[in-house]
Write a sequence for this structure.
């Protein structure tokens, strides 16, 4: 009874959140700036990264008090753009003089360099308005996060935080609106152009639903032993409330032998999928022989309109719903993005009375279809998440993903959609085979906490998901978990960061589920996948493992990193079990006035999967990606 009350309260609250934006839209107004002759002058800058003189160009008419003095680091490049050290004047104009910001903005891809740097800034104790467990963020929302924290950063003695601030603000300079006094205008141009060469030597794994993956969180891109290549570009167009983002790429992977028919049949039997007819070729099972792959693929393609703090969009867009770095149990970029309709509250919402207790809130909803399923075919999926920030150091969120419909199952109707969306009870067996089947429901709960007294040094976070339970909170022993901690600074090495995460999808409530528990469903038999790859955590079904990273931050957009990854599947699921161990070294470096990024990494993997190949297998992956950032253009019409 308690779980039902908690769930119903949560979903009614979520519905109320979604209804709030309509009256808030009607309430949008513009505040007229102070006249030119007013005693209060507006401070104007040329934006981070390209100052004219290194000093603040305009100051308040009031004299500066001793308390306002401060220093900023010297330098003249985009990473450390401050040349002089004048008395510090608070950046920005009073809120009552700001123009209301209703500009639309594109999402920043979750594989962008911006996310590790922003999460680094968060772990150092800044950007308190960040929602760590809800990504992607838009360029505008990123700008607002930084604007709310820049006074603290510039007053601090952390040169690293100031470097990150300068680097990210330089990237977002086209979004600035001259202190809120002038419209942004038209933003357009090529955001990035990139090429990745990736030779692989040795046998790989490419089966996240069963044995494992050699490359994880890579948008489900194809790869095989031999020479792999991707070449892509992205463009941005923003004007007023509207925005368009397109990112496409050519992908090449060589041919491969793949799984034998006998192994494919054995794995298909584990999934209770008949291995015959149209099921001989399943996206979740890389049955051989596999031909050369040369697709052109839209990685992201999203048209959006901004309404009252929401981005309402259609197309392909990223999602990373969780606070962890190595994976997100609800939704990650491990699989190819789906086409969906999306309503995302991208700016924190303050709700009278409720926000006094739970703080600002954000929510996200998207609805689309899954590909690569054959039993049934063309499943539909929707996901919704709501997160709260009661304090500047604590955030928690609830998420639910529902897979339903599909050819050969009950039709998609408004009734079963609303039933799955609002029902607060656990799903039972009789419902699954009836016309009232709400679908395969996966519920997640996560939180992150910068620990008190050491919030600039240590962050703890937990991500969890359960299948057919109202929430992992109501059935903690049946849930899957990814837990982690981040030590942002080590003694005497302030730029060295240690992060570690442990993950399990093998709950201890029974000896074995034969893989038919988390990320599996008895109706939608290819489960929690899109085009063969797990939508959530790469760890897959009935597995344990973890990751650890040592990262040395060279500047605001450069780093060196060493990573270790481990995964193990149970023998009761995969005959003989599977074991993976990976060691990876990466360097990210900028050249040519920060317009060119080199992202190079080397990975060595050892794995065992007796069901596939006997003995110990090894492979090495060397990847070199060069990205050119041409720079966006901004055309003002005022």
């Amino acid at each position: 009874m308690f779980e039902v009350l908690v769930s119903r309260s949560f979903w009614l609250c979520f519905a109320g959140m979604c209804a709030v934006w309509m009256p808030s839209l009607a309430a949008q107004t513009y505040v007229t700036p102070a006249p030119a002759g007013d005693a209060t002058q507006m401070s104007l800058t040329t934006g981070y990264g390209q100052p004219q003189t290194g000093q603040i160009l305009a100051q308040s008419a009031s004299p500066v008090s001793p308390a306002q003095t401060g220093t900023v680091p010297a330098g003249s490049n985009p990473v450390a753009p401050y040349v002089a050290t004048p008395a510090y004047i608070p950046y920005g104009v009073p809120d009552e003089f700001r123009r209301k910001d209703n500009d639309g903005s594109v999402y920043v891809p979750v594989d962008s360099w911006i996310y590790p740097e922003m999460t680094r800034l968060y772990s150092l104790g800044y950007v308190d308005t960040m929602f760590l467990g809800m990504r992607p963020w838009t360029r505008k929302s990123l700008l607002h996060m930084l604007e709310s924290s820049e006074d603290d950063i510039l007053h601090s003695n952390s040169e690293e935080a100031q470097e990150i601030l300068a680097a990210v603000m330089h990237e977002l300079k086209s979004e600035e609106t001259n202190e809120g006094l002038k419209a942004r205008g038209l933003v357009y141009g090529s955001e990035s152009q990139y090429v990745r060469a990736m030779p692989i030597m040795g046998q790989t794994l490419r089966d996240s639903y069963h044995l494992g993956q050699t490359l994880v969180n890579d948008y489900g891109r194809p790869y095989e032993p031999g020479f792999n290549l991707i070449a892509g570009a992205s463009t941005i167009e923003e004007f007023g409330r509207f925005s368009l983002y397109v990112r496409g790429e050519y992908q090449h992977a060589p041919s491969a032998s793949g799984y034998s028919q006998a192994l494919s049949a054995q794995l298909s039997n584990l999934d209770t999928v008949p291995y015959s007819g149209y099921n001989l070729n399943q996206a979740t099972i890389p049955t051989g022989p596999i031909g050369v792959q040369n697709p052109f693929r839209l990685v992201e393609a999203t048209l959006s309109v901004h309404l009252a703090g929401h981005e309402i969009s259609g197309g392909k867009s990223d999602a990373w719903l969780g606070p962890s770095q190595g994976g997100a149990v609800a939704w990650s970029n491990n699989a190819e993005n789906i086409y969906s309709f999306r309503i995302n509250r991208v700016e924190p919402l303050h709700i009278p009375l409720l926000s006094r207790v739970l703080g600002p809130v954000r929510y996200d909803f998207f609805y689309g279809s899954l590909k690569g399923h054959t039993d049934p075919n063309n499943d539909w999926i929707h996901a919704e998440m709501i997160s709260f920030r009661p304090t500047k150091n604590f955030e928690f969120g609830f998420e639910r993903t529902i897979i339903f419909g599909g050819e050969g199952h009950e039709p998609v109707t408004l009734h079963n959609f609303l039933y799955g969306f609002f029902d607060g009870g656990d799903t039972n067996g009789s419902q699954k085979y009836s016309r009232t089947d709400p679908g395969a429901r996966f519920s997640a709960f996560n939180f992150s906490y910068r620990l008190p007294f050491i919030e600039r040094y240590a962050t703890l976070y937990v991500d969890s998901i359960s299948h057919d339970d109202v929430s992992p909170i109501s059935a903690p022993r049946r849930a899957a978990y990814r837990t982690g901690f981040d030590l942002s600074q080590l003694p005497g090495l302030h730029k060295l960061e240690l992060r570690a995460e442990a993950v399990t999808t093998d709950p201890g409530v029974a000896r074995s589920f034969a893989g038919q528990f988390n990320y599996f469903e008895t109706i939608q038999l290819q489960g929690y996948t899109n085009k063969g790859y797990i939508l959530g955590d790469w760890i897959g079904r009935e597995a344990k493992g973890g990751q650890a990273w040592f990262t040395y931050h060279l500047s605001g957009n450069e780093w060196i990193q060493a990573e270790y990854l481990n995964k193990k599947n149970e023998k009761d699921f995969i005959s003989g079990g599977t074991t993976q161990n990976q060691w990876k070294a990466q360097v990210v470096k900028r050249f040519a006035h920060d317009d060119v990024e080199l992202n190079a990494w080397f990975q060595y993997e050892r794995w065992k999967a007796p069901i596939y190949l006997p003995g110990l297998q090894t492979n090495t992956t060397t990847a070199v990606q060069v990205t050119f950032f041409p720079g966006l253009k901004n055309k003002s019409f005022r």
User: Anything to note?
Assistant: The CA atoms of residues 297 and 596 lie 24 Å apart.
